Predict the structure.
Amino acid sequence: MEALADPLLTVKQLASYLSVNERTVLKLVSDGTLPGVKVGNQWRFRKAMIDTWLDDQMIGVTPRYIETPEKSGPPPKMMELASCFQPEHIISELGSTSKTSVVEELALKAQELSLVRDKTWFMGALIERENVMPSAIGNGVAFLHTLHRSPEQVIRPFMVLGRSTRGVDFDSLDGEPTHLFFVLGLKFTELHLPWLQKLSQILIDRERIKSLLSASDAPAIFQVLSEAERTLAPIAFANAV
């Protein structure tokens, strides 16, 4: 494997780092799936952004395109959405109109619910991740989480949801306003929240996103997600290797 001291990786270096062939890298970046920038006629990749992209796949907030070695032991138990999320975790209409103020409002909600110990820490950790790679994945949806798990600061695994019917500029990959902000409180490094994979499946459906935006209040939003969860098929990951 080639040395990865340079933070800007070539296609060949990235293929080696991900243990895939170069065609796979080129396909993923051409599709807009893999974060990269074209310099002249050559693709270049920031390792920090690649690591964040992999992290998003491992915790289930984006489809898994690169297979990672499976851990020994029994598979994780499939948790229900309600195990980490309740109607009181929802802000049905955010008052914030900017990226920073949205993060602050959501971090405050997590602290008020006694889900994190320190709002200032949580807000800073969320913004740190945003500075590496925006969490808005398109279709009006963002998944916010910290770069590193923190069992000291996160009291228990959780999700908080903020909704903005008017939308906020959140540096989304598709350039459109973001309306639904899912904040993930991850306590451990291991993949311990398999329901995040369910959430990704739920939000593929544009009609379901419209239902979340038109729901009258927090209990109605929660009901849309709960009903969608009950209809999901078993999760299958794409394999581009």
In short: The chain has a mean pLDDT of 81.
